[in-house]
Amino acid sequence: MARISLNRKRAKLKQVLGIRARLALLAVILVAPLMLERIRSLEDTRTRQIAQATVEFTTVARHSADAQREVISSVETILKSEAFIRASAGGVSKSCDVLRASLPSNLPWIRTLLIAGADGRIQCATNNMYVGLDLSDRPYFQQAQTSGRFVLSDFILSRPIAAPTVMAAYPVSAFSGVSDAVVLATVNLDWMSKVMSNLGGRAGITAVLVDSAGTVLAAPADQHSAVGRPLDNMPLMSAIADRALRSDQDEGSLSFLAADGSRRAVSYIRISGTNARLIASIDEDKVSAAVNRDIRTAYLQLAFVVVFVLLGALIAAEKLVIKPIEMLVDMAKRLGEGDLSARAARNRLPAEFVPLARAFNAMAAQLSQRERELIASNDRLTVMASIDMLSGLANRRGFQSRLDFEWMRAQQYGSDLALLMIDVDHFKLFNDTYGHLEGDSCLTRLGESLSGIAADTMGFAARYGGEEFCLLLPNTDVNRAVEIGELARAAVLKLCLPHITSAHMIVTVSIGVAATKPNEALRPGDLIEAADAALYAAKHRGRNNVVEHGVQAIETGATEMMMAG
């Protein structure tokens, strides 16, 4: 017993230390150190990235502030030039003419140039909608007159168009020494935002240009919704709004822990010559989010690789040998059960099994092709058995099948079912006179007409035999059936097929109409017999007419056919 137990333990040990387990252990030993080294490298990268991002973004923010200074400086230069022209011109008319011609196209951030008199009323502008507007109550106008220097307003809404803007003002008195007019410009905030485009599109970074009251004047495209909003109402910016706006320093920076727990670094820069400030904020967690994500991914990859290697070593043999055999066995079973669509996916098989799979697939393809040919032949035979090749309509067999179906459906839903039996008048004489080829052509033309009427009335047309046709009309009462019969009779007349042995000199038809509500006491043959009786009556009434019969069940179960016309 002891020896048997020992042998069992040896067998289990061999299974555990088999080739698959050895390969798995070797793979883990090789892969794990590489993954751990990658994780350590990513940790160092995160620290460096935060430091580099802070330095880089501070530099970019300074460049953006310089660009805003250049924008405002260009506006100031244009206003000084216009003020000098106004002071030198000595008249309103001449200076206004110069003003209208001087709006530079290469400075798209200047939307409109204006000249306001000492009373604050606009005397002339590059956009006539501003002429006559009173700006005397505007603080920037008053400040320009009082200080005698360039003034940039806070965020305002333009009165004529209610659009957000900033106004720049420069008094003519700076050149003339006399309190006179003030030259103004409306600044396009969209263009001031475009100048900040290099600050946008970066995760964890917020940048805005604010006025002295803390209202956002400009922002990058991805933060444009902040324009016009107070800074202290913006998430993550309210904590530094007061300090950044009240600081006497032209530049400054601070770090703090935001309410959401994120660590943020903020820089603010004053735009020289104005009270506007560029404020930039960096969320350190978001800046390093990509590296943090890579670190988490690295840990997951390490765990995944270990598990994958272990499982791969355990199932590799099964996948390379057993699975291909099972796939081919399954395909053979499916073929044996009649599933001829079964195929072996050769791209999923080892190279050694591909020839065998190719042979299986070729055999299945041949069997499938033969089955398709057999089905196609059966379909053609079925169609040929149900279609009259001369008229193109259903033959008597096809008609009987459709009649049985419509009878059952009408009986189920309690609806009407009507039948028109149509016979060509004096057709034997037509054949004797014109020959059988013309007779066949006549039947073909009649079949085409009846096919069109069937399509228009949701009916079913068939050639019942010889020169006799029928038209089955579901959901049709006797009155409507008679109308359709008259329609069919008239359609044949319109064909104007010559028939010199007929009293009408053209081909005509006689039509018998019968309609009923199918029930247990009736059978489909009763409807045919009634329509035949009506057709017989139509023949005896001189042909080329429509006669109807009624069909109803009597108590004995027999069928009574009554002449109704």
From TrEMBL:
Q: Which residues are listed as membrane-spanning?
A: 298-317
Per the UniProt entry, the Enzyme Commission number(s) are 2.7.7.65
What is the uppermost EC class here?
Answer: transferase
The protein's matches in Pfam families, at most eight in alphabetical order, are given as: GGDEF, HAMP
Query: Its catalytic activity?
Result: 2 GTP = 3',3'-c-di-GMP + 2 diphosphate
Q: Name one GO cellular component term.
A: plasma membrane
Looking up InterPro entries in the UniProt record yields: Diguanylate_Cyclase, GGDEF_dom, HAMP_dom, Nucleotide_cyclase, Rev_trsase/Diguanyl_cyclase, Sensor-like_sf
The alphabetized UniProt keywords are:
Membrane, Transmembrane, Transmembrane helix
Stored Gene3D superfamilies: 3.30.70.270, 6.10.340.10, PAS domain
Domain (HAMP): give its ranges.
Answer: 319-372
A GO molecular function term, named singly, is:
diguanylate cyclase activity
List, for all copies, the residue spans of the domain called GGDEF: 415-551
Q: Which GO terms describe its biological process?
A: cell adhesion involved in single-species biofilm formation; negative regulation of bacterial-type flagellum-dependent cell motility; signal transduction
Q: Which SUPFAM superfamilies match?
A: HAMP domain-like, Nucleotide cyclase, Sensory domain-like
**Name of this protein:** diguanylate cyclase
